[in-house]
Design brief:
This protein is mainly alpha-helical. It has six helices and no strands.
Length: 177
């Protein structure tokens, strides 16, 4: 329960920072002074290659944080239990009493799983929100206003799709649960 309140506080802080982005230029200027010469220069070099590199770097960092701030063995055990419960549920899909029993068992593990996965989110949520605000500024600048990747993807969808792809690759390579 304590971790849920902590996570709620981080989410509220993140949205406050994002909401005050334009009202308090110190936030915006600090982020721009860090990201313009780094991520911005990579994107300026080649927008497609640069975006692949930036998305891969962000995803790699979040995967590393997730791997090293969680109990990997406990997560693997919980996922294995969850998978076996789902397989058992498939066997008894016509037995509502058994289905309810397996569903209850899965629901008991949800708070543990939630708590185990919240710790890395606490470290990465604010930086990701700041990156998203910076991306929004970068892609709404006069030179790139209305730019679409592959002619139809906004920066957000490009980021989301390739973050999912890179995340699955990095999780396999790094053996992250």
């Amino acid at each position: 329960m304590k971790s849920m309140w902590f996570m709620l506080l981080i989410i509220i802080a993140s949205f406050l920072i994002a909401g005050l982005w334009n009202q308090y230029p110190v936030i915006k200027n600090a982020v721009h002074s860090a990201l313009d010469p780094t991520a911005g220069s990579v994107l300026n070099y080649n927008i497609y290659l640069g975006m692949f590199i930036v998305v891969a770097a962000i995803t790699l960092l979040t995967t590393l944080v997730q791997k090293y701030t969680t109990d990997q063995e406990a997560l693997r055990k919980m996922k294995t239990e969850q998978k076996s419960a789902q397989e058992e549920m498939k066997k008894f899909k016509n037995d509502p009493a058994k289905m309810l029993e397996f569903n209850k068992k899965q629901m008991e593990n949800m708070p543990k799983m939630f708590e185990a996965t919240m710790k890395p989110l606490a470290y990465t949520f604010v930086p990701i929100v700041l990156f998203f605000r910076w991306f929004n500024d970068y892609f709404t600048s006069t030179a790139l206003a209305g730019f679409k990747f592959f002619g139809f993807l906004s920066w957000f969808w490009f980021y989301l799709i390739f973050a999912i792809v890179f995340s699955s690759v990095f999780r396999k390579v790094l053996k992250a649960a």
